[in-house]
Target: Ornithine cyclodeaminase
Amino acid sequence: MTPIPNLNIVPFVSVDHMMKLVVKIGIETVLTDLAAYIEEDIKRWESFDKTPRIAAHSVDGVIELMPASDGSLYAFKYVNGHPKNTREGRQTVTAFGLLADVGTGYPTLLSEMTILTALRTAATSAVVAKYLAPKGADCMAVIGNGAQSEFQAIAFKALLGVKKLRLYDVDHAATEKCMRNLAGLGFDLVPCTTIEDAVQGAAIVTTATADKQNATILTDNMVGAGIHINAIGGDCPGKTELHRDILLRSDIFVEYTPQTRIEGEIQQLPKNHRVTELWQVMTGQAEGRKSARQITLFDSVGFAIEDFSALRYVRDQLQRTRLYQELDLLADPDDPRDLFGMIQRSTANLAVA
Model:
């Protein structure tokens, strides 16, 4: 599908367009529809070219490229992770992405992905929880109340009916911000002063912290039988949130094992420790939740196919929303072999003007 007829003009979705798209469609609808795109693509996992993301690490953070292709479409995302940015009034994570036609190599969409990454991360968490969380779970602890927390809460409400939230952050101002943003959206909100308090009575625990270091956000004594842990904060080498003993008690589910071994919670474990990839659960080739007392752990690091799905979803909304601008990104000479002549004609036109 091409949203505009001129193949040499690329639609560009700006931050402003993305915000308007979410408002126009409705955030719960966006998250539900986006989850469906992600689930559809994960179920055809074996049709994708896959590779761990290409990362450039520094003392300040990381810059990554995340490519994926299903043979017809190609996508990549540029994304960074710089925890110190918040001290300077900047986002920890920023991103943009591109969708292209494999047959021609021409890009068909360029989009902001700072907001879109937050949406796809939350949608992925919730669609995974459909397979792994205890049936009827309606209470979730959210440890880390920064930029991702509201998206996670709304996604779990939209897809699983979770309405009770127990919130904790080392910075109480972050919890207050989260509560303000979620007020009036149908949640029962409980601010907590400790992590131990936050996890009490929660069937789902989401950890979403930002520090680039080995941390122990959850200790083994905090995790009771039967819960689902949605661990989304660990996403680069040397950065974890869970005590190793929790991993040893849990059935662990991952997106793409070669990437998660490098970046996820399981970097704390031997390379041969058993994990299950989500596509196997979603296609019925492996079991997800098997018992009421089972501890399930989604060791989420974010994978390029989720971004592929997100860009595909945005592309499919453009014709009806018209929320994009036309970007003159591709050269269009009269003769495809005469790029230099195109420059000469442009020079002549400028001289006449």
